[in-house]
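Review session, final week

We close the course with one last complete record, chosen because it touches almost every idea we covered. It is Alpha-1,6-mannosyltransferase MNN10, a protein from Torulaspora globosa with 366 residues. Go through it on your own first, then we will talk.
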Amino acid sequence: MSGFLLTKYARFKKPVYFVVMICFLIFWIRDDGSSSPLLEHNRVKHMGKQLERSPASLLNRYSRSDVKELGGKTSGSTSWIRSLLSWRGWRKDPSIVIILAANEGGGVLKWKNEQEWAIEKISINNKVAYAKRHGYGLTIKDLTVAKRYSHEYREGWQKVDILKQAMREFSTAEWFWWLDMDTLIMEPEFSLEEHIFNRLNNLTDRTLESFNPLNIETDIPYIDYTEELNLLITQDCGGFNLGSFFIKNTDWSRLLLELWWEPVMYEQKHMVWEHREQDVLEALYTNEGWIRSRVGFLPLRSINAFPPGACSEFSNDKRYFYNGEERDFVVNMAGCNFGRDCWREMQLYTSKLEEKNSRWYNRLFF
C-alpha cells in the first residue's frame, strides 16, 4: 500500500519542490543582504581598535537604497523586483506623519563623535522602514543654528518651530508623531491605528488621577474633558516627556504652538526652565483649562519605554522600563549621555530588534 501511495504522489514531487524554491526566493529577495552605503562606514576606531557601529544585518535591513538622505541625494535605485514585492500602496497625502529632527551641525555644546553619527543613522533608518511599511509620511528636519537659540542648547526650543513647519508642509495630515533621535521602534509590525488611535478611550488618562508625578492641581476651572484629544503625551518619573508624542493637525494645536513658543514668555523664563519646552508645556497645562481639556496621557511604555538606568531611583517600578516579553512598542534612551553609554544601549536594543524580527528562513539557512 505504501509503495502504491509513493508511486501515486511521486509525480507531484518536482512541482512541490519548485513551489517551495520560488517561495524561498521571494522571501530572500525581499530581505536581501546586499551591501548598503552604511556598511562602508560601519566601523569606528576606539582606543586603537576597530568597532562595529551596529550589526551589519540590521543596517542592511533598515537602509533602503531608494530613501533620500538628509542632503536630498539618493543613494541608488531599487530593483524593480524589490519594488514590486515591497509595494504596499502609496499615499500621496498621508494621514499620519512621523517627524524626526537631525542635528547636522554636530551640536551646540560639543561636536558629535562617530558613534553619535552612527546612532542617528540607525534611528533614521528604523523610522524610514516603519513609515514605508505602514504607508505613513516621514519628514526629517535639520536642526540648523538659529539666531534666537544661539545663546543656549537649542534643540528643545526648536522643536516647536519644526512642528509648525511640518503642519504647513503636510496640511492634509491628521496626526503628527514626534520622535527623538535616541528612540527605536521595537515592534515595527504594530500600526499606529491598532496600537494607539483605535483604542484611545482605553489607553488615555485625562484627569491625572492615576499618575501625577508633578503633583499638578487637578481641580481648576474651565475644563471640559468631553472635547476631542489633540495632544497625546507621556509622563515619566520627572514629569512630562516629549521624546515621543502625538499632536493633531487642528486650529487648537496651531494656537498651542504659538503660545508654546511665545517670545515674551521665552525671554522671561528660558533660563529658569531646566527642561526647556517640556517645562513650558507643564506650566501651560497647569494653568490653562482650555489646554488641559484636549491633552491625554498615554502609558509611558506604550510609546516611550525607558531602558534600565533611566529613572534610576524608581528601578523597581515596572511602569517605566522596556519589557520585550510584553512587546513594548518604542524604547527611548533619553538621558543616555548623562552617566550612561548611548552607544552600548543602542547596540543592545538594535540586537534585540534584530533578534525579534529575524525571518524564519534566515534562522534555517543563514
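Two points worth writing down before the exam:
The two ends are 39 Å apart (CA to CA).
Residues 32-90 have pLDDT under 50 and may be disordered.
Good luck, everyone.
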